[in-house]
Amino acid sequence: MATLPRGITAVSWKNSTKSKEKIVKYRVRVQKKVDDQQVKLDSLFDTLQQAVDELNNFKSKAGSYFLSTIDKLKEEERKKVNEFLVAPPISVYISKYITEKIDTRKNETQTQQRNTAVIKSFFKTILKTKIPNRHYSTTEPLLQAGGMLALIANNTLSQAEEKKEFGAFKVQEISYIEINDYIKERLKTVKKISVTRELSFIKKVFNELKYYDKSFFSLKNPVLFYDKGLLANSDISSKNSYRLSTEDKDILFGALHKYSNWELKAISLLSYYCGFSRSEIVPLTWEQVNLAENYVQLYQKKSGQPRKVYILKEAKEIFENMPKTNGDRLFSYGVLGFSGSFDKLVEKLGLRKKGFRFHFFRREAISNLVFNLSQATGSTGQDFSILISEILGIENIASLERNHINQLSPTEIASQNQVMKSVGHSNKKTTKRYSRIKIR
Q1: Which of 23, 51, 82 is the endpoint of a domain?
Q2: Within the chain, which residues score under 70 in pLDDT?
Q3: Domain residues for 233?
Q4: What residues form DSSP beta bridges with 43?
Q5: Can the keyword tRNA processing be found in this entry's annotation (predicted)?
Q6: Percent of the chain beyond pLDDT 70?
Q7: How many whole angstroms separate alpha carbon 379 and alpha carbon 391?
Q8: Pick from 343, 360, 361: which is nearest to 352 by CA?
Q9: Of 101, 123, 219, 350, which has the maximum CB count within 10 A?
Q10: Which residues in 344-360 are b (16+ Cβ under 10 Å) and which e?
């Protein structure tokens, strides 16, 4: 018997009558997946030709449907590509902004590299934040109609709870409504001051759009029109006034003392005593450290101007006990690597939740000086503004008084106990017992 086409089988049986005649029929049994649906054919035919005709007919119909489906998909894809080219999402313009405005900055020092990384991190957060997608084809006419119809559309949207990433929105889709949604979403996890900073970056991108596409020349920046009540008093409500208590100092410096890498402890203590920022202390070289004349020469500053920081007794002891195992540099850490290690430790200790950040060591350095000078003279902290600025190398005295010294109380320091209470010290020897550097 000739080989039957695939999908056709011969089925035979004997007639139940007395003749016992052999009956042969042809079964067509095939299936195809078309548009995610299984289409089946399972039938018997008297002749092979009927079976072949039906099989070919089935394949032809399924094939035509399949080809038409492919054509539809191709057309939809073509429309999407064309739509993307005509109206790209905001992510395209943010990427262009980063390339032209951020990547072209000087990136030579570790401070500059860290600043670039921080800005890119902000943009990454902005792009990935999901907000309600109010641009449905089913609800868009209602939204445009305004009034009660728009309210109905919004209720429908809130019930659907469909969101998409901010970076996926077209520029034309982002209004002050989307900015409000963005603010509300971010306030679920971060403080108002952080959201304000993120909005400043979104605003900068929208300001640049007219230089990327002339159709945006008259585009109004949506950040200018968001609901100001959402971030009201952000500078006041978000101001972090946390101070390291004696207990928290013991927890932090005790953990640093046990940390596997002695450098983490040394960097933290030097900042605690001398008010160094991480971008100043981490890249430090031995050439910058003058122990004979008790000062450190700094070059990496936001202003770009060099400054001297005088070495206090406790800091000098740390410098003298440090091993010189990193060549010209004091530490092997990079700024970003140190930040990651320090932040993870603070998070683990529960201090980050309380509000502690590395740059708060600067507050501690200033309060320590106020404490020591006030104890010796009985004068107020403001009397030492110039002296403190000289010791710690702070150029802006007004800023020092406004952001640090004026935050200390009481204004009249009448006794040592008052001083210690005002600056958060209940024991003068707190921290000092952890100062000596040991190599594991």
Answers
A1: 82
A2: 1-2, 16-19, 33-37, 61-86, 136-161, 234-242, 300-305, 366-440
A3: 90-237
A4: 28
A5: no
A6: 65
A7: 18
A8: 343
A9: 123
A10: ebbeebebeeeebebeb
How does pLDDT run across 75-132, given as a tens digit for each residue?
666 666 666 566 889 999 999 999 999 999 888 777 788 889 889 999 999 999 999 9
Long-range pairs for 285-291: beta carbons < 8 A, 24 or more residues apart: 285/328, 285/329, 285/330, 286/324, 286/328, 286/329, 286/330, 287/328, 289/319, 289/330, 291/316, 291/319, 291/320
Q: Which of 82, 113, 144 is the last residue of a domain?
A: 82
Q: What does each C-alpha distance from 373 to 73, 296, 389 come to in angstroms?
A: 77, 21, 13
Q: Which of 242, 279, 2 is nearest to 113 (CA)?
A: 279
**pLDDT value of position 300:** 56
User: Among all chains, which residue has been given the structure tokens 């890249």?
Assistant: 283
Cβ contacts of 99 within 8 Å, gap of 6 or more:
none
Q: For residue 40, what are the β-bridge partners?
A: 31
Q: Whole-structure pTM over 0.70, yes or no?
A: no
Sheet strand arrangement including 37-45: 8-14, 22-34, 37-45
Number of domains comprising the chain: 3
Rounded distance between C-alpha atoms, residue 227 and residue 83, angstroms = 31
